[in-house]
Design brief:
alpha/beta; 7 helices; 24% strand; 242 residues; seven-stranded parallel sheet; 12 strands
């Protein structure tokens, strides 16, 4: 049999506990994955580590997990917030998935002057983040915040959290050199919309306390690609890839 399915649950996890499953999770295990009584499953909740258990059917279409052994202790995510201007739905799904895989602890939609897709379904972002966490082996699911304007994001942010934003005209062309100058501490990565930040927004960002502009090289990237590139750089230089 292939490796055990892996599920995110909200219930406490401890030895010999029985973890109830939502209807869609039971359907996934019993009908999609075609697993049955006694088959192994891995579960995590973002608090109690990762546990292995066995499926126990409680009805024709329902099941729960009988926990046995803890496989991994809980790890905390890097303190990196991923802030992004919403884009079209399918690519927004991609953003939620990849930001989760790259270790973001918070997904924060940000409305800017040139943002096109202003309607954001945070429950869909959350579902994509959960699915990505289940598949890639991380032990947490990032929080998903309601959309805010760029002005509110800047007004409410903790000045101790370094804000790193992507800027084609960044004063330091080498993004690694720019990030090497950042002091250790909590971080936020900000990606603008397809049309970029307005000149006024860029000026406000450059004047903001503890804000760093980084370049992503000579090629123009789509917003979703830029997000992956920026998070990769940040995790490699300042995050948990070191």
């Amino acid at each position: 049999m292939s490796k055990p399915p892996r599920l995110y649950v909200d219930a406490p996890l401890r030895a010999d506990a029985a973890v109830p499953l939502a209807a869609e999770q039971s359907h996934y295990l019993l009908s999609v994955m075609r697993r049955g009584d006694g088959d192994p499953v891995l579960v995590f909740n973002g608090r109690d580590g990762e546990w292995q258990g066995e499926i126990r059917r409680t009805g024709k279409r329902t099941a729960e997990i009988d926990l046995a052994d803890k496989r991994r202790d809980q790890a905390q995510p890097p303190d990196v917030h991923y802030c992004f201007a919403p884009i079209k739905r399918a690519r927004l799904d991609f953003i939620a998935q990849k930001a989760t895989e790259l270790g973001a602890s918070l997904l924060q939609p940000v409305l800017t002057r040139f943002t096109v897709a202003e309607r954001v379904k945070t429950e869909r972002l959350r579902a994509n983040a959960v699915e990505a966490a289940e598949q890639c082996g991380v032990l947490w699911v990032p929080d998903v915040a309601e959309p805010v304007s760029l002005e509110k994001l800047l007004a409410d942010r903790d000045p101790a959290r370094t804000l790193i934003f992507c800027d084609e005209a960044a004063p330091v062309a080498d993004p690694i050199a720019a990030l090497n100058a950042v002091a250790p501490g909590p971080l936020a990565v900000l990606i603008g919309p397809e049309g970029g930040f307005s000149e006024e927004e860029r000026a406000i960002l450059l004047r903001s306390t503890n804000t760093v502009a980084i370049s992503l090289g000579p090629r123009v990237m789509r917003a979703d690609t830029a997000g992956v590139a920026a998070l990769t750089l940040v995790q490699a230089v300042l995050g948990d890839w070191r």
